[in-house]
Amino acid sequence: MKCTVGLRIWHWLNAIVVLGLLGTFFLRKTFLSWRTNSEILMTKLSEIDIEITSKQAEMLAKAVRAGMWEWHIILGYALAFLMLYRIYLFFTDTSEKVDFSSLDMHHKAVKISYYFIYAVLLFMTVSGLTIHFHQELGMSKDFAGTIKDIHENVAYVVAVFVPLHIVGTFVADATDEKGLVSTMIHGKKIIYKVEENIVNDKD
Ligand code: HEM
Ligand code: HEM
Fold first, then answer.
1. Quick one: which atom of ligand 1 is closest to the CA of 118?
2. CA–CA separation, 142 and 38 (whole Å)
3. 162 lines ligand 1 (CB under 6 A)
């Protein structure tokens, strides 16, 4: 078995949760940005002769955004559980492991990128929970604000890694690693010899 069912379930749940977190990030910066929406609210309300202050417009725009942003926290908790599950798998998982030194340069880089993203996701989880619970942790608002700025900047690393990873696995699957994506679904190592139409299913 190349990839155990535990690791595969972790991978796809993690993919859904991380894509969801990136979705909330995207919405907060675009369609549900309070800066843009407070201006729209002020303009549209003044067209119907209702004048509101920029502070009031900000409050309304943030209220519109609040329901969406709750999902950031819900998915944040989900990521925290997935990180704990991944740490447990790190010690117990029996997926086929290839010796790092036997890999070519490309696969070494891919492997390092996975270790890197694990570290990034762990950082996002710890920093996210820290901001969320900063009062309970007795942390000053200023310090929580600094952590939030770092959390936000590191989020861009996730936003770059994910599309590169998806495109990378698709390209590998379409070229010299046919069946790579389905390996993450069924877990078996399948070598396709397309020219000869031979499929060799190695368990
Ligand atoms: C939705 C589209 C996605 C597809 C098709 C996909 C596909 C794959 C495939 C085929 C592998 C195995 C590659 C290999 O053996 O080198 C893999 C591994 C991995 N993927 Fe994804 N992935 C997706 C989304 C994500 C997302 C959103 C994340 C979040 C960061 C992610 C994180 C990882 C990690 C950390 C590994 C390494 C797993 C390990 O061996 O420890 N993937 N992915
Ligand atoms: C892939 C993982 C994550 C990404 C990409 C991400 C992204 C972001 C971004 C971009 C912001 C700044 C938003 C802004 O001020 O415009 C933010 C804030 C925040 N994130 Fe995350 N985050 C992730 C994981 C988490 C986790 C695991 C938690 C834990 C609950 C969390 C909780 C928070 C909190 C509490 C804030 C501050 C919200 C506020 O001040 O209104 N995040 N996140």
1. 35
2. 25
3. yes
Q: How many residues does the chain have?
A: 203
Look up the domain containing 157 and give its range: 5-202
Q: Which two tokens stand for residue 9?
A: 């379930």
Distance between CA atoms of 5 and 186, rounded to whole angstroms? Answer: 8
Q: How many domains does the chain have?
A: 1
Give the per-residue pLDDT at 2. Answer: 83
Give the phi and the psi of residue 14 in degrees, each rounded to 5: -60, -40
Q: How far apart are CA 51 and CA 46, in angstroms?
A: 5
Q: Is the pTM of this model over 0.90?
A: yes
Q: How far, in Å, from the CA of 42 to the mean position of ligand 1?
A: 44
Low-confidence ranges of the chain (pLDDT < 70): 1, 191-203
Residue 189 pLDDT = 79
Pocket test for ligand 1, best of 4, 10, 11, 160 (most atoms within 8 A of CB): 11
The sign of the torsion formed by the CA atoms of 47, 49, 53, 58 equals negative
174: domain CATH number is: 1.20.950
Q: Is the CB of 18 under 6 A from ligand 1?
A: yes
Cβ contacts of residue 96 below 8 Å, gap of 6+?
1, 2, 3, 189
CA of 151 to the centre of ligand 2 (A): 7
Ligand 2 center to residue 198 CA distance, Å?
48
